[in-house]
Specification:
Layout lengths: L2 H4 L4 E3 L4 E5 L2 E6 L2 E6 L3 H8 L9 H6 L6 H14 L2 E3 L10 H6 L1 H10 L3 H10 L1 E5 L2 H14 L3 E6 L2 H11 L8 E6 L9 H9 L3 E6 L4 H14 L3 E6 L3 E4 L16 H8 L3 H9 L10 H19 L9 E5 L5 E4 L22 H10 L5 H11 L9 E3 L9 E7 L9 E7 L2 H23 L7 E4 L4 E4 L8 E7 L3 H16 L18 H12 L4 E5 L9 E6 L2 E7 L3 H25 L26 H13 L2 E7 L4 H7 L2 E8 L1
Parallel strand pairs: 6-7, 6-9, 7-8, 9-10
Antiparallel strand pairs: 1-5, 2-3, 3-4, 10-11, 11-12, 12-13, 14-15, 15-16, 17-18, 17-23, 19-24, 20-21, 21-22, 23-24
Helix pairs in contact: 6-7, 8-9, 8-14, 18-21, 19-20
Length: 667
């Protein structure tokens, strides 16, 4: 920062800044980060200067009180602290009318705002003037009343379920040394529609924020209040008590993408990770097991109060954008990121803008995008791996044998709520590669499930890879038809994988023809290892060259104990053989584990339509050349390959990058 930009500022040291002496300098730290400032006199200057950094004086006035020889050092130090965010300029703060008594009494809440943003006193003044409406039970009401009073709220309405609750909370309020100046107790209308709808609208229309903890009515009231607040344009801070936790939503405003209020993103993602039995329990309510009363309800109310306070004062943190989960047994609070609006099969969710329906534009954008390196791809997908609200709620190895192949299972949540979370498997000769394989398959499956959950136009638009033009997606039942999904590093690899997966589905499941020779010279070290392991184990396996009814690409069916366990199609026969051998070894390994454990097959559903594995395992060199060869074969066979970009779940699509669905049909 230059001298010209710092002379007129009124520097104020943020309240959360700490510093300590270090050899040859000072270490400065706050919630915004930390920095080491080098210099033998830095700590001494900080110690002397910190009491004067109150924002009352300009930098010029501060320098006037410093010896001339030290002014350059002080100027540089203040400039560095400003750049790093440890000091802020109060010269642009908004005016306020907060009196000295209130400023002293609520120094803590004001200082919290000051550590995060500007105009702390004015923001706190606006919070005190805000009208807050809390819809809750009596135990949560005590928590709201105590917390909001401590925060300095002056206008509070408590909407309680019955007169007895009102009396209980009123008696509690009488024991507090101070309560909001405008405190009202109101009985809750029985419903948010019908005869009582007007009463609810009267309660909520003038609220600057609505705080709602559904600790008694359950999920039904949560959805009803959310719809009403969305219609009235009122900010909503909402929590829902469940059997094992209290979930607290990010603040919802009229600007929230899924502000329709019905089936919002966190709720849909939460339901998608549960079994159907758990979904019925969550939807049914009420929660009456006793865990959501007393201290649990009060702690949940405090969490909602904090979010409302931050929203009304303009404080933002990463945690506030996540869902908070209060464990009812340990009383610990953790946070879970929500990836944004999930598909909504009701049609009430967000719709794609018209430009995004243009398949040519969408394909053009993906072709121009940079490939996603494997490490970055896996790093991105970790955000989607959350057992409570993630599209991939579980990734584990412990339920599967890890020899001779490493095996990873990933659960994929169904946002359409038609099925329970389903399992996909990844396998490889190393643990890291197995996990990467599972996550890649899980990402493709999750995007396909999102496509199925979202409302679909008729006919669906797509991009014909063979003819290079937009055309409707072929429908099943009209001649040759198959589809495949993929999520690879770039569009060419994804299009190739999706096309090969679709072609494999056109191959008859029962192998026919002569056994395909497996020349040892054509096998990689990993291939030979698969063959040796299968031979040593006396596995009854075979590989058959099969004729695809569609194209003249090398196609193989892999059998184990007489049943087809994998089908592989690829322009390069060696690549198809390598992928199929690994799938065969995986099938043998899982079958052996099932026999030894005496339990059911742990694989679950390995592909979206529960057929033997047809997901191709691309070679490291696969890409545009192999795609061109495949498309030429399709053209010769009179087929089209229509690509759909899988972005019905925009947040997940942004993480994955190149999720596609390829549908093969008669041209």
């Amino acid at each position: 920062m230059t001298v010209q930009t710092t002379d007129a500022v009124r520097p104020r040291l943020r309240g959360d800044v700490y510093f300590t002496a270090m050899p040859d300098g000072a270490f400065v730290r706050s919630t915004r980060g930390s920095v080491f400032l080098k210099g033998a006199s830095v700590h001494r200057l900080l110690t002397a200067l910190a009491p004067a950094l109150t924002g009352a004086a300009t930098l010029t006035e501060l320098l006037a009180a410093v010896p001339t020889s030290q002014r350059p050092s002080v100027r540089k130090l203040v400039g560095t602290l400003l750049e790093r965010g440890f000091v802020r300029d109060t010269g642009s703060d908004l005016p306020h009318s907060l009196d000295d008594d209130a400023a002293e009494r609520y120094a803590g809440p004001v200082q919290f705002i000051d550590s995060c943003t500007d105009s702390a006193a004015r923001r706190f003044q606006d919070f005190r003037a805000a009208r807050l409406v809390c819809v809750c039970g009596p135990d949560a009401a005590r928590g709201f009343l105590s917390a909001l009073t401590d925060c300095g709220a002056t206008r509070l309405t408590l909407v309680l379920p019955d007169p007895d609750s009102m009396l209980t909370v009123h008696q509690f309020a009488a024991t507090l040394p101070e309560v909001p100046a405008e405190l009202a107790f109101v009985p809750a209308p029985s419903t948010t529609d019908g005869a009582d709808a007007t009463d609810w609208e009267t309660l909520l229309r003038t609220a600057d924020a609505v705080l709602h903890l559904a600790d008694r009515p359950g999920a039904a009231s949560r959805e009803a209040v959310a719809r009403l607040c969305a219609r009235l344009g009122r900010p909503l801070v909402q929590g829902l008590a469940m059997a094992d936790a209290v979930w607290i939503w990010p603040v919802r405003t009229p600007a929230t993408p899924d502000g329709d209020g019905d089936g919002d993103a966190p709720w849909r993602r939460l339901l998608a990770t549960r079994t159907e039995a758990e979904r019925r329990t969550l939807r049914a309510g009420p929660c009456s097991d006793g865990l959501h009363h007393g201290p649990v309800a009060e702690l949940a109310a405090i969490q909602l109060t904090f979010r409302a306070y931050c929203h009304l004062t303009g404080v933002t943190t990463p945690e506030l954008a996540a869902m908070a989960r209060l464990d009812t047994t340990t009383l610990e609070v953790d946070h879970h990121p929500v990836l944004g609006p999930a598909p909504d099969s009701s049609g009430a969710g967000p719709q794609k803008p018209g430009a995004e329906r243009d398949p040519a534009r969408r394909v053009r954008l993906l072709r121009a995008a940079d490939p996603v390196p494997d490490p970055l791809f896996l790093e991105r997908l970790t955000v989607a791996c959350d057992r409570h609200v993630g599209p991939i709620p579980d990734v584990r190895e412990r339920d599967h044998p890890q020899s001779p192949l490493f095996v990873t299972e990933a659960k994929v949540a169904d946002p359409g709520l038609r099925t329970e979370p389903r399992a996909v498997l990844g396998a490889a000769h190393t643990a890291h590669a197995a996990r990467a394989d599972a996550l890649r398959r899980a990402a493709a499956t999750a995007l396909e499930l999102a496509r199925q959950a979202a409302p679909r136009p008729a006919p669906e638009p797509g991009w014909d890879l063979v003819a290079e033009r937009a055309r409707p997606v072929p429908a099943p039942g009209n001649g040759r038809y198959a589809h495949g999904t993929a999520a690879e590093a770039d569009l060419d690899r994804s299009a190739l994988a999706g096309t090969l997966a679709a072609l494999a589905r056109l191959v008859p499941v029962q192998a026919a023809g002569d056994a395909a020779p497996v020349p040892p010279a054509e096998l990689t070290a990993a291939d030979r290892q698969c063959v040796e392991l299968l031979t040593t184990a006396d596995a009854r396996w075979s590989v058959h060259r099969v004729a695809s009814p569609a194209v003249a690409l090398p196609a193989f069916a892999f059998l184990l104990d007489g049943a087809t366990v994998a089908v592989q199609v690829h322009p390069d026969a060696a690549t198809a053989l390598s992928a199929g051998l690994l799938d065969t070894l995986l099938a043998w390994q899982l079958a052996r584990h099932r026999r030894e454990s005496g339990g059911p097959d742990p694989t679950g559903v390995t592909t979206p339509d529960a057929v033997p594995s047809v997901q191709p395992r691309l070679a490291a060199t696969d890409g545009a050349d192999q795609l061109a060869t495949t498309l030429e074969q399709l053209r010769a066979a009179g087929l089209c390959a229509v690509l759909q970009v899988l972005d019905d779940d925009p947040a997940l699509a942004e993480l994955v990058g190149f999720g596609v669905r390829v549908v093969i049909g008669d041209a």
